[in-house]
Amino acid sequence: MNEFWVLLTGSLVGITCGLTGVFLILRKTAMIADAISHTVLFGIVVAFMITQSLSGFWMLVGAAIAGLLTTFLVQLLQSGGLQEDAAIGVVFTSLFALGVLFITLFAGNVHLDVEHVLMGEIAFVPWDTWDILGFSMPKAVWMLLIVLLFNILFLFFFYKEMKLTTFDPVFALSIGLPIVAMHYSYMTLVSLTTVAAFDSVGAVLVVAMLIGPAATAYLMSKSVLRMMIWSMFFGITAAITGYYLAKLWNTSIAGMMAAMIGVIFMLVFVFKPHDGWIWKMFKRIKLKDTKVHVES
């Protein structure tokens, strides 16, 4: 039964992050997910300092605020003339360092540490449960299901607006769509997804799941909807194969899941029909042989 909960948690991380990561890739803001996945530590620690509680609700609130703060500060620095990657680097390192400092000063006696946030331990998921409406499931599963529901509802109601503000922001602005509000709403979802996932699997796997499956799906898809489906599929595949390989080789489960995301991406990049690296190399060789034959 414990294996089932671990596999379900990993699959839910793959589904939730895979769905959320699609617009990060399309908007070319993938690296802000890396920043948010680390700066939410600052939000969680501040939430603990205020409430003296490690409940899932206050973690989500603190993470959402930290994610919004990260996004706001990056936008502020960009508007001041700093390049986006530099702005992300400054905000990311500063807020993460503050989170580490606050843990050392104010949360040294509770189960809240940098290693747990970065690496997580998905194998311990089945022993931390919540009883809600008569159902007992691991806390990570409840949190991921709740955040997945938020993501689905957001995309259901604002799918067209997200597409328009992503591909043609000038036109979206001209017809009165609230581009800034959509951006910050989406970044709030990224923050909630991040904290719901890294409590069990760590920030490293969260970043991999947010970027890797969506980037792989981008290579496979010609539409946003298909990209979402492929992204969730690749996330689930990486979670399941990573778990069994980690069990076979007795290594880190989260680390192996993240490694499988990279493996899947490279397989698609190299072997994808018509557009893959092997296929393009074969076409170049064939074209070269044709030119030589014609010239001779």
UniProtKB/TrEMBL annotation:
Family the entry assigns: Belongs to the ABC-3 integral membrane protein family.
UniProt subcellular location: Cell membrane
Keywords: Cell membrane, Membrane, Transmembrane, Transmembrane helix, Transport
Pfam family, one: ABC-3
Protein name per UniProt: Metal ABC transporter permease
Membrane disposition: Multi-pass membrane protein
UniProt xrefs under PANTHER family: ABC-TRANSPORTER METAL-BINDING PROTEIN, METAL TRANSPORT SYSTEM MEMBRANE PROTEIN CT_070-RELATED
Superkingdom, natural source: Bacteria
Lineage: Bacteria, Bacillati, Bacillota, Bacilli, Bacillales
BP terms from Gene Ontology: response to zinc ion; transmembrane transport
Organism in which the protein naturally occurs: Psychrobacillus soli
Regions that span the bilayer: 6-25, 32-50, 56-74, 86-108, 140-158, 170-189, 201-220, 227-246, 252-271
GO cellular component term of the entry, any: ATP-binding cassette (ABC) transporter complex
